[in-house]
Amino acid sequence: MNRSLPPEHLQSPASASFSEREFRNALGQFATGVAVVTALAPDGNKVGLTISSFNSASLTPPLVLWSLMKTASSMPVFETASHYAINVMGAHQKELALQFSRKGIDRWAGVEFEMGVTGVPLLAGAIASFECRNGPHHDAGDHVILVGEVAHCQHVAGVPPLLYHGGNFYTEQLI
Questions:
Q1: pLDDT tens, residue by residue, 67-94
Q2: Which pLDDT score is estimated for 174?
Q3: CA distances, 7 to each of 10, 54, 143 (Å)
Q4: Quick check: helix, strand or coil at residue 7?
Q5: Which of 27, 83, 105, 137 is 20 to 30 A from 74 via CA?
Q6: How confident is the prediction for the chain on average, in pLDDT?
Q7: In angstroms, what CA-CA distances link 82 with 5, 119, 134?
Q8: Cα end-to-end distance, the chain, whole Å
Q9: Full set of structural domains in the chain with CATH
Q10: 135 membership: H or E segment, kind and range
């Protein structure tokens, strides 16, 4: 069922009554989990980056989605890789998430991993992993939304997640 509004109801970015910073700050009020997406480049080198834009899309078939900035240096790998893995970080993996978010370093230095059933690197200690067949990509402003068909998944119960809110990582849950 398509309930989209006609284009005349959409506000163009040029007429928005808020700045990009205000928009980012407002988005930052939505707490998310943290994940590291990993894949292999055509030359066999490992790539990976930290994301907080990860969602389930469908149970049947099992689909997930995430987004990546079009200018990301790893975009060519994720556009063409047959598979990738989404590794959900536990509260104990804050430093690992930070490592995979930094530019200009060897993100894989000292990182423990194993190869998954689909041939992509899975990070040791992740509280969940989703090995995905690379599916449709959708243009979305300055990002691309990538849809993955989950070929294999696993999880560890009872381990607290690493959370991201307002530009900060949180490793404890307050109830």
A1: 999 999 999 999 999 999 999 999 999 9
A2: 53
A3: 5, 27, 20
A4: helix
A5: 27
A6: 90
A7: 35, 10, 5
A8: 38
A9: 32-166 (2.30.110.10)
A10: strand 128-140
